[in-house]
Amino acid sequence: MSGVKDFRYLIPESLFQEITQKAAAELPNLIHGWLFAERKENFGICTKFIMNPDLRKSKVHMKPRSWMRYKKSKIYNMRKFKQELEVDIVWQWHSHPSGNDKLHAIDKRILKYLSNGVMIIVIPAIPEKEQKPHLVGWYYDKRYTKKPIIEKMVFEIISE
Ligand SMILES: [Zn+2]
Q1: What is the chain's pLDDT, residue by residue, as a tens digit (160 residues)?
Q2: Cα–Cα–Cα angle for 101, 105, 109, nearest 5°?
Q3: How far does residue 104's CA lie from ligand 1's centre (Å)?
Q4: Distance 123 CA to ligand 1 centre (A)
Q5: Cα(103) to centroid of ligand 1, in Å?
Q6: 8 A C-beta contact, residue 95 and residue 25
Q7: For residue 27, how far is its CA from the centre of ligand 1 (angstroms)?
Q8: Domain enclosing residue 83, as ranges
Q9: Alpha-carbon distances, residue 113 vs 66, 67, 91, 94, 116 (angstroms)
Q10: Which of 18, 119, 22, 115 lies closest to 61, judged by CA?
Q11: Interval between CA 120 and ligand 1 midpoint (Å)
Q12: How many domains in the chain?
């Protein structure tokens, strides 16, 4: 999935517009969901995304109420999506209304707890603040090293 230097991440222009506009539509709230991709030999191409219905809307990052339940539910959902939707890659995404594309302290704590995973950050456009739409991924792995490996996943926007 990552860790491979020549692996490329692609997202069709229309999907990039949809996901960043969804994040903008929900401002000032932070939203989260799942992003699906198809794996090819040396690249992954995003195919679809969904947003989690959230009863408790939040403008800020929140710690999971139960870390263990969070992990179990993530594993359960990823497995379910892979089977039901027949997708190769399932990533979690959430929006950063602030425009900061770095991992938040809580994002890092979650990744540390999971010990391995990917987080996709979606930045909504805010024209008044000259904030441009953007999408980036962070790959995290501390399974085999003392210091975690954190790699930025740069997505190439492609026109269909
Ligand atoms: Zn975050």
Answers
A1: 445 568 999 999 999 999 999 999 999 999 999 999 999 999 999 999 999 987 788 999 999 999 999 999 999 999 999 999 999 999 999 999 999 999 999 999 999 999 999 999 999 999 999 999 999 999 999 999 999 999 999 999 999 8
A2: 120
A3: 5
A4: 10
A5: 5
A6: no
A7: 15
A8: 8-158
A9: 11, 8, 17, 18, 8
A10: 119
A11: 8
A12: 1
Please tell me the distance between residue 50's alpha carbon and the centre of ligand 1 in angstroms: 17
* Ligand 1 center from residue 87 Cα (angstroms): 24
C-alpha 29 to ligand 1 mean position (Å):
12
**CA 31 – ligand 1 centroid, Å:** 10
Burial class (CB in 10 A: 0-12, 13-18, 19+), 151: middle
Q: Which two tokens stand for residue 12?
A: 């069709």
Is 133 inside a domain boundary? yes
Q: Residue 105 C-alpha to ligand 1 middle, in angstroms?
A: 8
How many angstroms is it from 47 CA to the middle of ligand 1?
A: 22
CATH number, residue 28? 3.40.140.10
